[in-house]
Give the backbone structure.
Amino acid sequence: MSAQHLSRPALPYFDLLMEERQEGGETGQLWENQVHWGYWEDPKAAEGTRADYTAAMEAMNGVLFHAGKLTDGQKLLDVGCGFGGTLQQINGAYSDMDLTGLNIDPRQLAAADAQITPTYGNTLRWVEGDACELPFEDNSFDRILAVECIFHFPSRQKFLAEAARVLKPGGYLAVSDFVPTMMFFGKTPIWMAIRPRIAKSYGTLGDVPLRGYRSMGRRAGLQLVANRNIRKNTMPTYPFLLRFFREQASEDAQSTMLVGTRWMKWLSKLSLLQYRVYTFVKPD
């Protein structure tokens, strides 16, 4: 599929960030590299500072690196790579890596390309493409990461099938996702009422999966080997972001971000929404 025919999902927070990057806005600076939730090994130790949240976003990447069994010398694809923060961290911590960042939004790819230079014998390329129609040959990658982005894809099932296709036999896929505690919650009137309010901030949300990840992976040709709920470790993200938006963000940022973040906090606090990290392997 040629790039000009890609259908980009509506993502208000990334539209906001592109504007803020040009204007030097506070929210653009906060999410200059990483654009995801933080991970705290001890949530009670969270400091509530910008530096602490930035470190927690890097720690979240570390959780995915561990889940995906990263080592030097691998050919790796980061799907939904955003501004390239995850690949930037890999680039600084691993050597002789063949790194590819894929995103459907060319603006994000241009920003990533402008701020990352390969080091330690690594190579780096940026590809515009659809996660559900990956523009790569079969058996191309040793590792695939999808850090907090799969919920924007039209279909989790289609992405998993595509990931299975482009993974080499024995290769690993690590995914982080917001998952309803009860699968049927995604079909209830309360979710249908909340969904557009979250979308006001965080944009297009794909279908809530009717099957669990183990079943979706099996249908795609992948074996689920690890499944970790880290909801509690992400909870300090919410008070930090809500205070940051109220006290430091522009009016546009407040208008865009506060509503959806409050609803995400409410769902997570009530344990209606989990934050899970999944590891799949493609059988030899």
